[in-house]
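Issue 218. Parser rejects a valid record. Input:
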Amino acid sequence: MTVNAPIFTELDTALTPPRLHIRGEWTLPHYAMLERELEQLRGRIDAQTSVDLDGIAMLDTAGAALLTELLGATRLRDIAGGSPQLLPARRALLETVGTALHEYCRAERQPPRSSVLVVLERIGRAVDNFYRQALRLLGFIGLTLETLARGLLRPSRWRLTPLVAHVEQIGLDAVPIVALLSFMVGAVVAFLGSTVLADFGASIYTVDLISISFLREFGVLLTAILLAGRTASAFTAQIGSMKSREEIDAIRMLGLDPIELLVLPRVLALLISLPLLSFLAMLAGILGGALVCIFALDITPAMFLSVFHTDTELRHLLVGLSKAPVFAFLIAVIGCLEGFKVRGSAQSVGEHTTSSVVQSIFVVILIDALAALFFMEMGW
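Output the parser choked on:
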């Protein structure tokens, strides 16, 4: 047995103008059927079409909203007021829903804005965000240094086990990638240098190019950038996951200091690991360049070592290693700070992990450029 679906609207086109009859139960249980009928009516009725609301048997806010969408709030209010058979409660409901949709649910049209003002607004927001980030970073650096100074006077509070574990994770596990990358970059620098210097008959100075560039810049810079991507992201993800699971709140409830417990071991581990890895990167880069000189430029190992010993001063090594602790401290602090900023969702962990990597690399390159200018002006 087939049950016919109810009909809620009927458009009588035999009349002039056409007349639309609204009838039946305009309630939420029939919402889907009502939507389908209204979709068929779109484009078939206009301002001249008369509307009859006397056949409405039941009405709620869902039906009133559909009628408002079909006829418009102003026209529906006029039609409801001119329908004597419509119950006062239904007339009031139609007027209330129509007014609400018309007055409060309209999308506010933003006035057109000048493209210059939009650009200036974005620049202002970026500058303000940079200023706020710098203040947070400086405050967190001060808090870390204060906690470190207090801990130095109380050896019983030193946490050697997590320190050793982080040194292994940060330093020992990073040895292969640091050594391999520095070796390949050293070979590339030697190839490029020899190509240019060969035109002037000065291929022997490729040795100086490799030794000075890796001792002063490339060794520590490559290591810092690698650890900024590898270690800062790990710090942020670890602390951020703890923050999202409310483990840091539990640490505070136990009377422990999260800075002392989570930040200091990571900062100290990176302060130990980065200078050692930088020295390893210097050796690997010089070795890569030496192999290129030996096999491509016919420079014997004895000649390479002689030129290296004669022309390369100890100050180049000291200049390079002096930057390593600064890079290590900033990378660790930025990674930990971004972890504390996580707000409890996986998306927030990902966003702050990306932010920590970007900030760390930016700070490393900025400090390296400023240090290069400073050492050049000082004649070091």
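Fixed in the parser; the record now loads. The mean pLDDT is 84.
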